[in-house]
Amino acid sequence: MVRTDNYGGFTYNGIHCGKFGVWYVPDASHLGRRPGEFEVFSAQTPGRGGGYYYGSRYAPRVFELQCVAEEMTRGAWSRLLKWFDKDQFGELIFDDYPWMIWRARPTAMIEPETYVPADMPFSFETFANTRTFTVTLTAFTPFARAPGMALEDYHTILPSMRNLLLEETGFIASARMPVLNYAGFTSRADPILLYNPGDTRAPLKIKLAGNAGADGLYLFNRTTQQGCKFVHITQQETTAVDVYVEADAEYGTFMAVSPLGREPAYFYHDSGYIWLEGGFPIERGLSASYTNGSRQIVAAAGFNDGMIGKYVYLNNRWVRIEYLVSGTAAATNYTFPVTGMGTTDVVLMNEIIATSSSGTNLTMFEFSFSPAFS
Q: What pTM does this model have?
């Protein structure tokens, strides 16, 4: 029996569970957002109280999806088993969190409980019954990725979920998203701002072509304390022959990319990769005023210590809150040229310090990433 709705379930590998008449029935542990399991690395020393903390890591994300199907024929069951065959791999998307895409594969055999209606005549050809079963899918990369970067990217698929997006993500309007393309870059005194609307770190991909300069180009994320250095990149070896170099933090690769393909290019990579800190949670809807010739902003709703170092969008630009002057006033890193007022979110930016050298002139300088959720 095929369901006619398309809500209250999940999609795997592009197929919604409703196609098979399957209902996803989560237990209490699966209702709403559930944090991933993590492992803590620590040690204890004999004769000394307490212990030492070395760090932690997320474990692969395991989804045990409890399902029920009514009047399922043998043929439909066979097709469902193939849908979750051990060699399958694809995107897992839940109807109630469609902005989170997990890349998962089946990791356990499906063992159903079958219930045969007493009033149904038996037939091998048309035999249909009710089955309950658990589908186990594992995302070995334990973070979901979002398909879009800004609130507007979800207006068509999530018209009724705007409030949920505002409450559970850091998505902001596209007009306020920092730019990702810096073609023509030679040098820059101010940090490059990058914003990850997710709740966990996202791997950054950086593409360069042109001249990196005599001593190369060093990029340092002041927010995560990570750096990446490009060296030996010249116009003749990149732009002139339609090639760019790409540093990919997710896979730890450094590649030369051309119309003919991709190949390792670690000769151009001196050190490091960069991840972007997640911006969620954020403070939304702060009304603040500013005055011509002043660096201070004033908000009747007040400021708190957690806002220091974060950014507000006023006078058509992002400015950094440096310190609190009082409970309702804060000093920024920007002297306002006009007097005005605006409503802004208070967000955590990734501040990328770009240290160029003599001769730096990039024909391509691009950042790309997908917002990440845990």
A: 0.86
